[in-house]
Hints:
Blueprint: H1 6-14, E1 18-23, H2 27-38, E2 42-48, E3 62-64, H3 67-73, E4 79-82, H4 89-100, E5 105-106, E6 109-110, E7 115-116, E8 121-122, E9 127-128, E10 133-134, E11 139-140, E12 145-146, E13 151-152, E14 157-158, E15 163-164, E16 169-170, E17 175-176, E18 181-182, E19 187-188, E20 193-194, E21 199-200, E22 205-206, E23 214-217, E24 222-226, H5 233-236
Amino acid sequence: xxxxxxxxxxxxxxxSKRKILLWGGRSQARILHEMIDEYSIGVVQCVFDATPNxxxxxxxxxxxxxxxxxxxxxxxxxxxxxxxxGEFGYARNAISEALSKLDLxxxxxxxxxxxxxxxxxxxxxxxxxxxxIVHKYCRIGNNVILNTGSxxxxxxxxxxxxxxxxxxxxxxxxxxxxxxTIGTNATVLPDLVIGEGAFVGAGAVVTKSVEPYxxxxxxxxxxxKYRDNKAELGVFHDxxxx
Length: 242
């Protein structure tokens, strides 16, 4: 049984016959496709990925790769899932907003072995994997990924498009800005601020707040360089064509 707020129970029941566009053709999308099938949330009608020479995973859905394809499929669709993981939170959030403007509804996918405390406030488009935990009085933004075994402790504020990777631990009262990425096995100590677009490297221990768009690594975490995550959008698609 999924221990999540009531509205997510309602959402999953209501989506039992959804016709879904899955954006992305790699590992994250493949896993989400399996979750959709396992929980009988709906039917993936189309899988979108514009990557040349992509090695495609097995699916009965139609593979598409252009904005024109999406528009042609729209009459057969009512929902979408954006299956883009990694440090591409800005792209994931922007794509989600663009698809919402096409009158498609975002679907949250929460694994049966994940836990969300009922006191927490959850945005749309959440992707939550086995063993992930959201503790009391948290606010989780839209299009957030909480990977396997990750923990978000009490009273945290997690912005839109954030990705908390596997086994990362976010201590209490941490604020994570939009599009930030917390790497595998990283630890963020209490009461810190992780700036918008920041990247915390795998295994890092963050003992002080991190500037926006800063990449930090090591124990304790130290600044390595700055990044421009808004440039990532061109890797996926020109949303102006939708």
